[in-house]
Design brief:
It is built from eight helices and nine strands. The protein is α+β, with helices and mostly antiparallel strands and 283 residues long. It folds into two domains: 10-166; 171-281, no CATH class. A four-stranded mixed β-sheet has the order 4-1-9-6.
Length: 283
């Protein structure tokens, strides 16, 4: 397969984040010692922009992987064609899920900014730029998929069917990439047997909540850790508290007055210590 031309949009998005960073600096007085609501709003928008930029960069990398693997098959360099087909499928699944996550984040960015009393009009133009970039990338990915499907047809004697692109996740792999999360008030999670009430002595050591030694995993929502980049909560940021252990720096909580987003920066690191995420939504 001839190498497919891919437009590199990383510079455009990097420019978007840079311009937004300038907006952040210009809107915040150096004399202020504490973040004000306007600064918090802009910082939240910046975090979402940075995540979209990271997503687009990762998509670009996966596109290169698909091109390299496909070229290797065409030159008869691949010893295990079926495995290569699965690797291509995995990359395409990642690209698809990351594009969807990016579109959702841009919609969130647009909605949060327009509904905020500290709305930054320049962000509306930046959102339009991001939407154009994502739509362009969407078109490139669809073209890439077309090339891969054509290649798969050429290898029909080695691959049973083109459906190999949809059969990457087998039973064992589902278990490897599955995680669970649940949220609710303290009383709700106690009633479900996820949290237990602690005694006054434990409170002296700074504990507010304690996980139950055993709980019903069916009460949790199931997610694929390779596809889940963010989780939405209809509670303000100050009302959220993560109970389970997760690696510092692998995630970030951002939000406004009515809702919040948990942005997962590094999926492997985030879920390494616990495959169950428990969040208390304090009143």
């Amino acid at each position: 397969m001839d190498s497919m031309p891919l437009r590199d949009i990383r510079f455009r998005v990097a420019g978007v984040v840079f311009v937004t960073f300038i907006l952040l600096l210009s809107s915040c007085s150096p004399e202020k010692q504490k973040p004000d609501p306007q600064q918090e709003h802009i910082e939240s928008m910046m975090a979402i922009l940075a995540q979209v930029q990271k997503n687009l960069g990762r998509i670009q990398q996966k596109e290169s992987v698909v091109e390299r693997l496909s070229s290797g098959i065409e030159r008869n360099e691949s010893q295990n064609v079926e495995q290569i087909g699965k690797d291509i499928a995995a990359s395409i699944r990642f690209i698809d899920s990351t594009l969807v996550a990016s579109k959702n984040l841009v919609r969130k960015l647009e909605s949060e900014n327009r509904s905020s009393s500290y709305r930054v009009e320049s962000l509306d133009r930046l959102v339009s730029e991001l939407q154009i970039a994502i739509n362009t990338k969407d078109g490139e990915v669809n073209t890439l998929k077309g090339h891969v499907q054509n290649l798969n047809k050429q290898l029909s004697s080695l691959l049973a069917t083109v459906d190999v692109l949809d059969e990457y996740v087998q039973d064992q792999e589902v278990q490897i990439y599955t995680a669970y999360y649940i949220s609710g008030t303290f009383n709700e999670l106690v009633a479900k047997g996820v949290l237990v009430r602690i005694n006054p002595l434990e409170k002296l050591f700074g504990s507010d909540y304690r996980l139950a030694s055993d709980f019903n995993i069916n009460l949790f929502k199931k997610v694929d850790i390779t596809e889940t980049r963010d989780l939405f909560f209809d509670k303000p940021l100050k009302n959220l508290k993560i109970i389970t252990p997760h690696t510092i720096g692998s995630y970030e909580l951002v939000g406004g007055k009515t809702s919040s987003l948990l942005l997962i920066r590094d999926e492997s690191a985030f879920w390494q210590k616990s495959r169950c995420l428990v969040i208390v939504t304090e009143e």
